[in-house]
Amino acid sequence: MDVNTIVGVLGLVSLLIALFLLLFGKIRETSKTYLLLNIAGGIFLFYYSYTLASVPFMILQATWTIIPLYKLIFSGK
Length: 77
Hints:
The chain is mostly helical and 77 residues long.
């Protein structure tokens, strides 16, 4: 497995962990853990989509990263 694929898998796992923890009531959507998992996953998947030159996926992942980053910075926690 090459480095790009490993980065993509790490991003995917990060987002899925955040989703499962949220859905099973282990964390809240405003928790720092949830936001950081989404930011990390978004960054990893943005890099992965960049290596694939997939512009739509890059836009999605940039948005997926910016929104929780904004929430983390301006939530007052």
